[in-house]
Amino acid sequence: MSPKKAMIILISVFSMQTLFAQETKVSAIAMENIKLDISLTAAGVPVYAVSYKNKPVIAPSEMGFALMDAKNLHSNFVLLSTETRSVDENWQPVWGEVKNIRNHYQQLNVHLKQKTTGLLLDIVFKVFAEGVGFRYEFPVQPGLKYFIVANELTQFTLTGDHKTFWIPGDYDSNEYPYSTTKLSEIDNAAMVAKSTSISTRVAPDNKAVQTPLMMKSADGVYINIHEAALLNYPAMQLHVNNNNYRLTSSLVPDAYGNKAYLHAPSHTPWRTILVSDQATDILASKMILNLNDPAKTKNTSWIKPMKFVGVWWEMQVGMGGWNYSDFPDSLGKDGKLIPNGKHSANTANVKKYIDFDAASNIKGVLVEGWNTGWEDWFGNWKENVFDFVTPYPDYDVKEIVRYAKSKGISMIMHNETSGSATNYERQLDTAYKFMNQFGFPAVKTGYVGKIIPRGEHHDGQWMVNHYERVAQKALDHKVMVDMHEPVRPTGLQRTYPNWMANEAARGNEFNAFSDDGNPAEHETILPFTRLMGGPMDYTPGIFKLKGYAAYAPERQLHTTLAKQLALYVTLYSPVQMAADLPKNYLAKADAFQFIKDVAVDWDDTKILEAEPGDYLTIARKEKGKDNWFLGGITDEHGRTTDISLSFLDKGKKYTAIIYADASDADFQKNPEAYKITKQTVDANSSLHLVLANGGGVAVSFVAVK
Amino acid sequence: MSPKKAMIILISVFSMQTLFAQETKVSAIAMENIKLDISLTAAGVPVYAVSYKNKPVIAPSEMGFALMDAKNLHSNFVLLSTETRSVDENWQPVWGEVKNIRNHYQQLNVHLKQKTTGLLLDIVFKVFAEGVGFRYEFPVQPGLKYFIVANELTQFTLTGDHKTFWIPGDYDSNEYPYSTTKLSEIDNAAMVAKSTSISTRVAPDNKAVQTPLMMKSADGVYINIHEAALLNYPAMQLHVNNNNYRLTSSLVPDAYGNKAYLHAPSHTPWRTILVSDQATDILASKMILNLNDPAKTKNTSWIKPMKFVGVWWEMQVGMGGWNYSDFPDSLGKDGKLIPNGKHSANTANVKKYIDFDAASNIKGVLVEGWNTGWEDWFGNWKENVFDFVTPYPDYDVKEIVRYAKSKGISMIMHNETSGSATNYERQLDTAYKFMNQFGFPAVKTGYVGKIIPRGEHHDGQWMVNHYERVAQKALDHKVMVDMHEPVRPTGLQRTYPNWMANEAARGNEFNAFSDDGNPAEHETILPFTRLMGGPMDYTPGIFKLKGYAAYAPERQLHTTLAKQLALYVTLYSPVQMAADLPKNYLAKADAFQFIKDVAVDWDDTKILEAEPGDYLTIARKEKGKDNWFLGGITDEHGRTTDISLSFLDKGKKYTAIIYADASDADFQKNPEAYKITKQTVDANSSLHLVLANGGGVAVSFVAVK
Asked: Between β-strands B65-67 and B72-73, what pairing exists: parallel, antiparallel or unpaired?
């Protein structure tokens, strides 16, 4: 640390002490190792602090807002009253990592009044065993009816220069690799500048990072900051002060630089802080789900987790294309588009995927590029791109749906909006009626490109409302939805149980269309960051790890084949793609057996080992069955671990089928080498697992009858 | 003229001469008194000039564009080729001022290529007997596919310091009174600052004015600049150079300051210049209609011009309200809105209007405030305001429609969007199906407030496209539409014959809710400005001209009663409201007879006398009938005129019923004094008409059988 920095920190600590010399203590609540303190500063600013095992984790941090028209809800507050409440209940998700979720917290409602204006502000805190959630509530009051949030002033003042796993605070994209630096080193400028993207990049503050933000202190405390139940509000990014380790809420703006248009009574999303000295606790936490509202419907029998294949990777690797024609502006002599002969979404080709599915215990086929408009869909900021109901001439919807149904397979709809949300909204009714008419149970949506309404961003309030409108429309039509390029999730899958998954991160596809691909550590970080908010459609399961893209033969995935299998367990999602080409699976049918077998819905989950950026081992029990599945992954470094199988049901015998890296496997030199072994195990057994550099291991535990 | 100004103009003329010393003449075309010259400057900038009776009207003026990414389509052009074409044809509008429209012009297509880039630009000119229209066309070409217009650089260089009738170049409103100044005096800052409005005002350039812009030169030449067929492009305002009288196209921007997102092949709207030494020629011109595309449908039998009354003025004058409750945020003990007892749109009240209509040869009843949401609809920039299908509890749609139908009356739907176009677009299908279901043949839409998408303006490209989407949706559902607070019209009523009228100007309503109201000259200017683009729903026919608003008893209309009658003829619209309360009509049933009788669709129109800002006299012949109607109005100065009735059908006798100002009438002191006389006339007769200060005269000519 430079002398200058040390001085700044000293001054900062001194200021805080001065400040708190005159503070008014409001209240404190605690649960297990977590303690929360609330105060008002001498200036009447509400301040909170969090400690873990009696050590400060969040130093005193201010709360409040700057509003438009020079109003604020920040200082000059006095305490009106507080209320506390204790809750301990259980609930069952429609689908998820566990069958039963405990919701156990202490609640503190703080009622504040601004002396100068009489304005009222409530702050509601919930303290769980693993962390804290709080949100602002704006009660009905004469002086605050419709109002505009200029800035949210919430601080998260950290107590040291923590190791941090971060991506830039981009208003439009989460599709970055993670940087691992100290808080003092965070600067996203270089990363933003070098990023290649299929989407737009807008990251004007080089000190801003996205949430969920994962940190680890020098003394081994893991801290995760995110938000829960992001509705009718922009995404919260965090502006990092490199000197005093203070993070400040930075909301994604609209065209006018305004943050949120609110109407009392209303409230913000929950700001969440998870803390533990066990990394596994962070992953096991259900606090974010608990802070979301219950499901909007009880009629959920139509919501079914599923695996699926897709007419997709073949386009990613250049074997075919989304577009039917290469000449969007000129038609042939017959007045029709001139086919380019490379259109993947054609009836015959799709039937091959259906046939493959039917033989593979996979129930869905996603087809991209089926509808007209792909000739010039990308990068033009074009408003009227797709109509979501008009297939290309070589795609026979009726026949494909008939054929799929005859084999017990469901077709998955694809609605790419190209970022033109206005165009999609105009056609939502038509699009979802079309899905109902032809029996599509699920839709993958996409937002590749700059947003229309122009001036809005993917992560701003308007688009947050848009995603909810889409989820609601899908719910109304009994369609499951998987959104690509939306705002990152915040646990809303509890409220909208048909909102199965999102992309909102750098997925496997970057291994196809970027030179860098995803680093070997990428999937060890995702669960601690992006996945904290909800399932990701990462599209795992690539078997051909080198030479898959003829147009860029040097590209390879930074993973072994066994690791690709492990991702079905370590990257939780109720919809999991088997992303590679059928022929690549058929060539390694023994390894593909794991993808056939692995479940997508679970009764129980055990986070066995975890270290962000390094490794992760998870075991899960199949929903309504006795089978367990285990996935273990590592970063670029090989790893050996002994895993106790004590999670297995006591007294039961299991056949463990172990899909491991071969002894000579290496994610760079020999990624596709694997070996499959079987052994009989029980809860008293342990497994000795050896993971190659960039490797992984997947295990099926089939209960012996 | 100050010495400084004279010097600037000399320099300016000198520059032009230098410029044109090296120019390349491209072509010239002419029709009757209008001549158009096209050149390329030495720098390769396309330049046009217009003369009238051999006197320059538009001095050499540059054309072209600045595009995004530092591209331009302005200089370095060379001429590739030109084509000419002559057209003389006739067509019949679905409804209009005349039965038959002649479309007679010389066309010149100029094909340009930019030397430096190879980019192609076409400019198409059409020269009519009364003026010039031109537009830019962007052909399909490799270097220009999707592109963004940063600025349009079209100039209109006037040749003198003309008298000009203008309103500010506001991005969101046309609801201003007209200023009459010299070009050198134009500055809108004071007008914008003092304006009261129900809408938003955004006029950042105090030298910008709205079109249609009406001017008169010192030597008596009338010049009108506007545009035709505004589709997929922002409205063109004009930036005025006070010193050299050069107007430059100034397009309404979006959130990013961008003007238009285009995709070749595409084109701009037509830029129109009308010129005549007769003011009446300007009003009689059909050039703007001729520059629009023919009707999109031939199935137009359901499109019917009509008069209507409305549950509307009673709210404007404070007798009732749009809102059902005064407490939007709190419900009564029954869980329902608490009625305020002042809600005008209730079933019993609406039936009174239906009864009045049935006795009055008026076929429509508009009801505002019928649907839920009016408690907090205004001024909150709120996105989800109205749903367009949910009536207030005291408004029984089914019963009202049944009752109206039983009396041969049509109910007119009202869809106020509050500027939230996104919300309206999401519900368009639902809203228009509702109209179809209940048999509403027409809808009045409204856009009071700041636009959502936030960052867009009423007059920008996105909203221009929105209005067209609404017109198309209405066409699809066979609904006539009357838009309030849209972009000002540009003749699109030809293409969308169901797009009956617009507001887009300062209507009669300002006499209710503003202290200033509309000045006496207002309606003598409107036909030369706003109405050049299309019909206006001005809502004439107020009979109670003082003391109508109990809450502001000092307010009065700046018009006599006879002038209110005359407006049904002078302010053309196929939908005309009888705006006052039934009781005020019943109190002056003899005068109301004119409103009962006057037609709303015409076989012929004669502009008999006109001087913008001073007076206007028009005669029109009823569609398919022998009857003629005449309207004459004046400004604040009384006027005497002798009108030859030579327009009447030769050899026919007519009973002329003359609704004139009483001899002691005066718009300020005695506005409601009128006298009605009858006489028998024919085409050889003339009428001696005396108009009071701020007065008018209306005449029915009923053919004697």
From this structure: antiparallel
Angle at A41 between CA A35 and CA A42, to 5 degrees: 150
For A453, name the nearest residue in chain B, comparing CA atoms only: B453
Give the Cα separation of A544 and A587 in Å (integer): 10
Judged by DSSP in three states, B609 sits in strand
Q: Where are the beta strands (DSSP E) in A203-348?
A: 208-209, 213-216, 222-228, 236-240, 246-251, 260-263, 266-267, 270-276, 306-311
A235 and A251 in contact (C-beta within 8 Å)? yes
pLDDT tens readout for residues A363-373: 999 999 999 99
| Closest of B33, B12, B281, B15 to residue B158, by C-alpha | B12
Phi, psi of A222 (to 5 degrees): -95, 135
- Cα–Cα distance measured from residue A584 to residue B149, given in angstroms and rounded to the nearest whole number: 48
Q: Interface pTM (ipTM) of the complex?
A: 0.92
DSSP B29-80: EEETTEEEEEEE-TT--EEEEEEETTEEEEEEEE--EEESTT-EESSSEEEE
- Tell me the pLDDT tens digit for each residue of A189-211: 999 998 865 557 899 999 999 99
Tokens of B117: 């880039």
Q: Would the pLDDT of B649 be above 50?
A: yes
Which residues, at least 6 apart from B644, have a Cβ–Cβ distance to it below 8 Å? B686
Cα torsion B439, B443, B449, B453 to 10°: value is 80
Cross-chain CB nearest to B456 (options A429, A453, A465):
A453
Query: Which candidate, A104, A107, A74, A69, places its Cα nearest to that of A89?
Result: A104
Closest partner residue to B453 (CB to CB) among A381, A426, A453 is A453
Sign of CA dihedral A673, A677, A682, A687: negative
Contact A454 B462 (CB under 8 A): yes
B599-622 residue pLDDT tens: 999 999 999 999 999 999 999 999
Instruction: Read off the tokens for A669.
Output: 């030199």
Give the per-residue pLDDT at A7.
40
Work out the number of other CB atoms within 10 angstroms of the CB of residue A146. 14
Active site amino acids of B: 509
Q: Using CA atoms in the order A65, A67, A71, A72, what is the torsion angle rounded to 10 degrees?
A: 0
HEC assignment per residue over B217-249: CCCCCEEEEEEECCCCCCCEEEEECCCCCEEEE
Report d(CA A395, CA A384) in Å as an integer.
21
Of A263, A264, A380, Cβ closest to residue B146: A380
- Give the span between the Cα atoms of B208 and B191, in whole angstroms: 12
Whether B196 has a pLDDT exceeding 80, the answer reads: no
Q: Kindly report, residue by residue over B66-109, the tens digit of the pLDDT.
A: 999 889 999 999 999 999 999 999 999 999 999 999 999 999 99
Q: How is residue B21 written in tokens?
A: 């010393």
User: Under an 8 A CB cutoff, do B383 and A453 touch?
Assistant: no
Report CA B63 to chain centroid distance, whole Å.
26
Give the position of tokens 């940190």. A215
Chain B residues in contact with A465 by the CB 8 A cut-off are 383
For the annotated catalytic residues of A, the residue numbers are: 509
Q: Please provide the DSSP assignment of A348-379 as one string.
A: HHHHHHHHHHHTTT--EEEE-S-BS-TTS-SS
Q: What does the pLDDT read at residue A200?
A: 78
Full DSSP string of B138-170: E--BTTBSEEEEEEE--EEEESS--EEEE-B--
Q: State how beta strands A442-446 and A410-416 pair.
A: parallel
What share of residues in chain A are helix, strand, coil (percent, to 5)?
20, 35, 45
Q: Fill in the amino acid letter for A106.
A: Q
Cβ-Cβ contacts under 8 Å, B426 against chain A: 425-426, 428, 469
Mean pLDDT along residues B656-681: 98
Q: CB neighbours (10 Å) of residue B512?
A: 23
Written as one string, the DSSP assignment of B446-508 is E--SS-BSBTB-TTSHHHHHHHHHHHHHHHHTT-EEEEESSPPP-STTTT-TTEEEE--S--T
